[in-house]
Amino acid sequence: MKASSPNRRHAVAFTLVELLLVIAIIILLVSMLLSGIAAVRENARRTKARGDVNAIRHAFQAYYLEYTRWPSNLVAGYPDNEGTPGIPVTASVLNMLSGQNLSGNNPRLLRFMEIPNSATSSPDGAYLDPWGQTNKYMCDFDNNGTLQIAGCTDLVDVAVGVWSTGRNRRDATPEDRQDDICTWR
Ligand SMILES: [Ca+2]
Ligand SMILES: [Ca+2]
User: Fold this and answer.
1) What is the pLDDT of residues 69-123, one digit of tens each?
2) Cα(175) to centroid of ligand 2, in Å?
3) Residue 136 is part of a domain; what is its CATH number?
4) First-to-last CA distance in the chain?
5) For the whole model, what pTM was predicted?
6) Do the domain assignments include residue 114?
7) For 14-66, how does the pLDDT look when each residue is reduced to its tens digit (9 = 90+)?
8) How many domains does the chain have?
9) What's the CA-to-centroid distance between 115 and ligand 2, angstroms?
10) CA 149 – ligand 1 centroid, Å
């Protein structure tokens, strides 16, 4: 049997190195593509969340201009005072802002907002943010021009704040809140 020449062995080895290099480049490109797609999707979620919370905030502001008070007693168990972790934007809250006289809060049946097309409806009727959590809000119930919300250190001179707890789905601490989508920042 004729033995392979050194040049031929060198050529085969070189080809193998080239093949491994090509595979490594492909793996690198695929990983870059996947991370890019994930980033685009996350940006889309944040854009959607920001649109929803801003729409809800504008509705609350329009409500106040019309009734010169904030809606109360819409969510059981949440007193209308400040310093709580936030009131959930339940389906009842959105339906009231959309023209229903729930708990006597919209006697003129005014439509302050359309329920966002991007809002997702869960089986229990609550409208969720892109990460599957209920948005939250707080109004300046004592009308002193600022808000107090438990765990929130950066909310100051606004009359109403609406937020999504963001990708980490938490807002109990300032660290939790770093990825929140807030109407005041
Ligand atoms: Ca206040
Ligand atoms: Ca968060």
Assistant:
1) 999 877 777 777 787 888 899 888 988 999 999 889 999 999 999 875 555 555 5
2) 8
3) 3.30.700
4) 78
5) 0.81
6) yes
7) 788 899 999 999 999 999 999 999 999 999 999 999 999 999 999 999 999 99
8) 1
9) 23
10) 10
